[in-house]
Give the backbone structure.
Amino acid sequence: MGFLDDVKNQQAAKKTAKSGQPVEQVESMRPPHVQAVAPGLEMMAAGMGAFARRLAAVLPDIQASYDLAIYGRLTGLRQSGYRFATTPDLKLQLSFTCKSSETVEFSTTSRETCDRILDELIQARLKVRYLSHADWKFIFSVAPVVPVSIELEPHESDSVARLTLKNLDHIGTQTERLRPDELDENPLEQLKHCVLRKPDQFKEQIAMRQHERDQQLAVETQDSNYADALGRIKELFGLRSKE
């Protein structure tokens, strides 16, 4: 029995105990836009879960570095604490921590820059302290601990999945949209490469897919505009012929 089977059985037992409804019934009650991405998300859940378990068991020596704007750099951080979680509404999260023993310190004399950097670091869930001196010098101290997560979930209304990368290759959050046909082994393998800090073309592939979607949308819009124009011409000539 695989990881996904275990998860489904546990969810079915909990749901049946609470509502008396089998898990198949609950799944059939999902909105159509969620059902569209459910098979892909379930496949991703199985793959990401197995990957997280292997990482936790083997604990490979993977190091990461992060730039802190132009002011400093966290280096020599080692990855650990791999965890995977999923919920009945198909929200997936693979998380881990990058940390070392070298605290980074830097300073700025701009209050505006201080506020911006502080906001960015706090939003990224980094532990940061700063001191304000009378001469308008702000000294930052950033702990060498970076929480990282890869999250997948159905979109609120569209038939796509939202992929959210938090502090994966840089400090901050990156969000992408994946269609049902894009939820396959390819992005799963590319995400694994990202976690292992191996060279990959994940971002380039996402950009290419977005370009293809934009081109397709442009063609569809052009065809629609042409059809509308043709309809108006036919309507115009039809009216004139009646006159």
Remarks:
- The mean pLDDT is 81.
